[in-house]
Amino acid sequence: MAEARACLKAVSFAKELGFRDVCVEGDTFTIIKKLESVNEDRSIIGTIVQEIRQKIHRFRRFQVGFVTRGANATVHGLAMERINFTDAKEMEKIGRGRNC
């Protein structure tokens, strides 16, 4: 559930900042597969998945990819330290994962 909510927040944030090309990576394979599927999701996170799907159609290009926890270490570390970005450009300094 937390990964789905985090994805929704990331997609919403990207839209607010005016991004047109977006790649979301996560270490929860279930969420990645649900977003790639065209089938209706009737699981407990189905409403969140549906809301994400509605938002991603607003982007020119949207990619979703799976990364292992190790590959996701930078983002995981930031989340654990609760670092807040005051400038969206700071996000670019983190670097890209392998799938985008």
Report on the structure:
The radius of gyration is 13 Å and the shape is globular. The chain is of the alpha+beta class and 100 residues long. The chain has one domain (2-93): Nucleotidyltransferase, domain 5, CATH 3.30.420. The mean pLDDT is 80. The protein is built from four helices and two strands, in the order H-E-H-H-E-H. 43% of the residues lie in helices and 12% in strands. A two-stranded parallel sheet has the order 1-2.
Provide keyphrases for this structure.
100 residues, alpha+beta, RNase_H-like_dom_plant, RNaseH_sf, Nucleotidyltransferase, domain 5, 4 helices, 2 strands, single chain
Based on secondary structure, the structural category is alpha+beta
| Order of SSEs | HEHHEH
Shape: globular
CATH homologous superfamily (4th level) name? Ribonuclease H-like superfamily/Ribonuclease H
Distance between the termini: 23 Å
Might you state the CATH topology name? Nucleotidyltransferase, domain 5
Q: If you average the pLDDT, what whole number results? A: 80
Q: How much helix, percentage-wise, in residues?
A: 40-55%
Beta percentage is: 5-15%
Helices, by number, come to 4
CATH architecture: 2-Layer Sandwich
